[in-house]
């Protein structure tokens, strides 16, 4: 997932949003690294609150939930800046 996610972001920015190639690469890498770091932060915080047994039992659902929270959080934070 770590290598595929920037590719999806790049294709979205380059093909759908019609952003220049270099800016699309920058935005894709920035977005994937920001999501990855916030994913670590959210997973540590939420697993501390819910407990290790909950995470061990529902690890797939937990991982999907953390990824979605991280992506939404970073996209909302980026909305405040004017990149495009």
What best-fitting shape do the alpha-carbon axes yield?
A: elongated
Our count of domains comes out at 1
Compute the number of helices. Answer: 4
Structural class: mainly alpha
Give the ordered list of helices and strands: HHHH
Q: Give unreliable regions as ranges.
A: none
C-alpha Rg, in Å?
Answer: 15 Å
Question: What is the first-to-last residue Cα distance?
Answer: 26 Å
Strand content: under 5%
Helix % is: over 70%
Q: Could you give the count of β-strands?
A: 0
Summarize the main sheet: none
Average pLDDT over all residues: 88
Kindly list the characteristics that best describe this protein.
84 residues; mainly alpha; 4 helices; elongated
Question: What would you note in describing this structure?
Answer:
This protein is mainly α. The protein has one domain. Helices cover 82% and strands 0% of the residues. The chain is built from four helices and no strands. α1 crosses α2 and α2 packs across α4. The longest helix is centred in the middle third of the chain and has 30 residues. The chain is elongated, with a radius of gyration of 15 Å. The relative contact order is 0.13. The model has no long low-confidence stretch (mean pLDDT 88).
């Amino acid at each position: 997932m770590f290598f595929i996610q920037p590719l999806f972001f790049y294709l979205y920015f380059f093909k759908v949003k019609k952003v220049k190639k270099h800016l699309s690469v920058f935005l894709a890498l920035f977005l994937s690294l920001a999501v990855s770091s916030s994913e670590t932060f959210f997973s540590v915080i939420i697993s501390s609150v819910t407990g290790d047994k909950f995470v061990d039992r529902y690890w797939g659902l937990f991982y999907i939930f953390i990824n979605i929270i991280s992506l939404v959080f970073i996209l909302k934070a980026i909305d405040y800046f004017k990149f495009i």
